[in-house]
Amino acid sequence: MLELIAGALWAMLPAYVPNNAAVLAGGGRPIDGGRTLGGARLLGDGKTWRGTAVGTAIGVALALVLDAAAPAVGDALGITLPGFPINAAVGLALGAMLGDIGASFVKRRSGRERGAAFPGLDQLDFVVGALLLALLFAPDWTLSVFTLARVAVVVVVTPLLHLGTNGIAYWLGVKDEPW
Ligand code: CTP
Ligand code: MG
Ligand code: K
Predict the structure, then answer these.
(1) Is residue 177 in some structural domain?
(2) Residue 157 lies in a domain
(3) pLDDT (tens digit, 9 = 90+) per residue, 85-143?
(4) Is residue 134 included in any domain, yes or no?
(5) What cofactor requirement does the entry state (predicted)?
(6) Among 5, 138, 149, 155, which lies 20 to 30 A Cα-Cα from 113?
(7) ipTM value
(8) Atom 24 of ligand 1, nearest CA residue
(9) Cα(141) to centroid of ligand 1, in Å?
(10) Is any atom of ligand 1 closer than 6 Å to the C-beta of 51?
């Protein structure tokens, strides 16, 4: 049970931190350059080059740290934790950012302004993006690390973690909305 839950969260960590790092690093030029589609912004001012680049870089850097720490932490817990080859690291971190960007595209098409909530999509967009890009960049690693049981754990636990961390970021005053 510990191996299942700890392994699932460990494997997802490089996908969890990019969005939070982007909140801290955001600002500057929006990716869509102000372009609109059907009267609404393509992505909106909340998706910037700097936030995306810094978020991805922090996620990859964390994966490399976790890769080095996996044997020792696994030993201490008495379980086996996955390491992160660089292609898996990039897939998870960049995929998380792209999933979040894709969600903003969907939100703008459905008439939601920047910052509007979209329950479900907000909490899982980056999970879907991370797993898909990891599958594309590191198929063997992804299929062996993300067993169906671990994906199930991730789908259940991630929304709770996401609401928790965003609530804290809102309370600290670094995020505009608690979702
Ligand atoms: N951010 C960024 N670049 C990204 C993702 C996030 O710069 N690729 C920063 C922005 O400052 C953004 C903040 O992180 O406002 C919070 O991210 P998020 O909640 O995803 O964006 P929203 O502003 O809520 O916009 P949207 O409605 O499009 O999700
Ligand atoms: Mg938001
Ligand atoms: K979001």
Answers:
(1) no
(2) yes
(3) 999 999 999 999 999 999 999 999 999 999 999 999 999 999 999 999 999 999 999 99
(4) yes
(5) Mg(2+)
(6) 155
(7) 0.98
(8) 115
(9) 29
(10) yes
